[in-house]
Fold:
Amino acid sequence: MTIENISSNKVFGGWLKQYTHISTTVNCSMRFAIYLPPQAASQRVPVLYWLSGLTCTDENVMQKSGIQRIAAELGIAIVAPDTSPRGENVADDPDGAYDFGLGAGFYVNATQAPFNTHYQMYDYVVNELPALIEQHFPVSDKRSISGHSMGGHGAITIGLKNPKQYQSVSAFSPICHPIDCPWGQKALTGYLGNDQQTWPEYDSVELMKVTKSTLPMLVDQGSDDNFLAEQLKPETLIEAAKAVNYPLSLRMQQGYDHSYFFISSFIEDHLRFHGKYLLD
Amino acid sequence: MTIENISSNKVFGGWLKQYTHISTTVNCSMRFAIYLPPQAASQRVPVLYWLSGLTCTDENVMQKSGIQRIAAELGIAIVAPDTSPRGENVADDPDGAYDFGLGAGFYVNATQAPFNTHYQMYDYVVNELPALIEQHFPVSDKRSISGHSMGGHGAITIGLKNPKQYQSVSAFSPICHPIDCPWGQKALTGYLGNDQQTWPEYDSVELMKVTKSTLPMLVDQGSDDNFLAEQLKPETLIEAAKAVNYPLSLRMQQGYDHSYFFISSFIEDHLRFHGKYLLD
Structure:
């Protein structure tokens, strides 16, 4: 597994680098970004994986969240994959919509043609990417996972399904119950087909109902998020967590919206939360 | 002078807002952004003006620098104007180049047609914008000024020419000596004409040589900045400051480049520097 470095920027004493590689999971060239804190120059550091939301790439969190500041203080690497496979041969939404296809992989393994050829983002994030990171960079095998919106959905579902692989999970404004919201229903129909029996394995609420995991989980949600009631539905996750006594801390943040301005305001809390489990 | 609010985002407990207004100085609609820290809800706060670099708008510093975090802690408003007049009727570089015309006003008052109709960015930043801000927002009359690259040039020249209007000045990667670098020579020729006698009033080094000001000044420059030797020339500013015993602190930051990743790494230092003078 080879990787090609395409950019380097010094940030808060560490290095932000972008790489491309040929993914055997999604069958195309993929780009990712990694922030290596100053501590990585002399020791192995744990990794927080960040999954972005609809329309994003690896760049949004690195440019807009300010995440590097606390990552540098604590000594945590940040890895941000892209949000879908890309390229001329990768199928897209037939209408070019922002909420399906390119930039909208939803962190699932697609079963439906033509999407199943490339849209294997679940396996990419859970298996191929961590193996690649641990092969090429001075990181330990301690991992946590976080994300925003579609990426919050990805982080929670992946965390709940793989509790031994991660130390902790967090999310901003996650799509909590995709089987019951327009974004989720469109994506799951397109990637998994009309048979809804296959959908719950990618639904945070449905996974929560049956989880045996006790992975620590922090969720922040803005009260003035335009997508709150129709798409995000945090109340469904709170209810499911209560029913199984899950250690979920979900905070409603008054007046905040769905943007990276919200994320930047609370990313420090998330890094310190993950740090408790990654650095102990 | 009326203003129209076009966006609002809660950030670090305060509010980032964008406005448009009809500028009588540059004779077109202008957009600016203001970050009001939480303290502005109950008291007047001082203002740091931020001047952006080539190709930028009011948005870059607000999205990429993380400036709101320390502004919220200290209680300082941040105001970011656009980098040029804009609109269908505003003359641009004949070749559409990034370094002249739209997005490249250089904070001068143009004297040459067709640019003199709208490109009066010096007067806009020094006079019209502060008056507008102080009319419409809960701010005091304490002001400081900072900026990046072309905006660093703007901040230093404006600070040196108006020491009573500002408490302090700072810059990242400023174009220190525009009369002697390609970016500056192109812009000054276009806006001011071939008669170079008019150029030194917009040149930080030339202004430094004759200044009576002792406005505190902090400059950060990345050692790995691609534009360092040809366009920025910080050594010329250091030399001029030494000759007049000016209180300049210019720091070469090893390994950093020209990007907002560099700015984000040191913006806290700049806010605390300005805070010493804005909040005393």
Q: What stands out?
A: The interface with chain B takes residues 9-13, 16, 63-64, 66, 68-69, 222, 224, 255-257, 259-262, 264-265 of chain A (CB under 8 Å). The beta strands of chain A are 4-11, 14-23, 28-36, 45-51, 77-81, 139-147, 169-172, 217-222, 248-253. The CA atoms of residues 64 and 260 of chain A lie 6 Å apart.
